[in-house]
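Crash report, auto-generated. Payload:
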Amino acid sequence: MNADTAMTREGALRLWQRFTPAERSMRSAFYLITVMAVIWSVQTVAIIPEFFYDAPQQTADLFARMWPIDWAWYPKVVHAALIETLHTATLGTAVAVVLASLVALMVARNITGSVVLNTIGRLILVATRSVHAIVWALFFVAVFGPGALAGTLAIAVHSIGFTGKFLSEAIEESKPGPIEALVAAGASPLAVLIKGYWPQVKPAFLAIAMFRWDINVRESAVLGLVGGGGLGMALDTALSNLYWDQAGLVLLVIFTVVIAAEIVTAWVRAKII
Amino acid sequence: MTGVLAQTPRQRVAFPSNWSARIAFVALAIYVVYASTILDISWARFAAGIEHGSRFLSRMFPPNVAPDKLQLLFGGMVESMQIAIIATVAGVLVSLPLGLAAARNLSPAPLAWTARGSIALFRSFHPVIVAILFVKAVGFGALAGMLALIVASLGFIAKLVAEAVEEMSMQQVEGVRATGSPFLSLVIMGVLPQVMPRFIGFSAYQLDSNLRNSALVGLVGGGGIGSTLFTAFQRFDYDFVLTIVLAIIGVVMVGEIVSGWMRRLFQ
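Recovered output after restart:
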């Protein structure tokens, strides 16, 4: 990067350096700031050391209470909760994809010309993404009451940001050739969208939807902790009753379903996309 | 799919009907209706909720910016940042060796599979669930949140480090190995220079992800702004809730900008 100065005089001693002085000082500043931030955090964070001493006993106690796992609870409560979680994740993803497509069209600069609309769309994406699904669930539980409706809406709204961001990028990357051909043929804007853009963004669209579904299975499993229905609700019940053997069962089910979702996603991706 | 119908030259259609796509859309629509009935989602409930929601929103505006509330907000936010910083740094330091152990081109197979298994285990549990377990183990407060986020960071960064190490060029590693250097020098001189830029990128991403998640672990007793938020919710201080949520959005956005700088600095 500093090659210019070294190349000017052929034969002179070349001093090659990987980074410019500015880059080096920026990096040193970065390291310094990092170290300072860590020192500040470690020194001021409120940790109660007494709690730390009996952590090993507490952890051992935790696992002792979980074992043996209460398998009988699965058909009674957990199975229904599992089904609810899967439906929450899937329906939430479906709603999110529809809403995110609209926002993505608004954000993509090659579709919406207005800078104001682009910015509004971008703000929607950032705001929905920054507030976590569980916080959204808190809101929707306060509005719609506890249950899967609140959970589904939380999943849907939170996923708009992620899905919309990647969708808008895919739309912006589509080639202008087919679009121009359609416009020249006198196609209506809707026809241009369906026959010009859709075939180009379809692979990305499916990949994004599958990826988000995988994430949403994980997220919807915990929404119940704040009243969003599903496995989290079963976990919350078990924890507040201090039935750790039931909590262990729910944790095991969550683990299994998350791994299964990952396998399904990988399989579909290899098969279709 | 388009080529099949276009074979007979007379009936060339510009856009042949795509039946598999139509069936997929209909199936999706049927599923949406079915799932809605299963989950007891109905228009009546939705409409009732909308009315509820407008009352709820009116109680949220204007956001509460009383000095005592702002002090609470500031305290929670500072604790969240501390949690995020410590968790990221500790997670990064541990995930480097763990990622190397999980890379199949460097470490022996049994070690690699053990490391991969533990990474998969860390990744599959949501930070909130990990936080619940740590709250039981080390009690309420920032420590539990921190440990939960360290586990989450491990799962993410170690996996990406392992992938980056597996994708790197082995020629440099061979070169260093040919000089007869021990394993540690091999890692420092042959491996790290190749994966460092990506590693910094993951760490930067993990920092803002931890910042976001530190708002979560508080909901189950892990300290930070999440505790403040949950308390405000339980006390029906909805105007303060709005202040907290806006503050979280602001901090997360600033965090995203900062981590963007970090990534560009090390590209």
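Post-recovery validation: Residues 167 and 205 of chain A are 6 Å apart (CA to CA).
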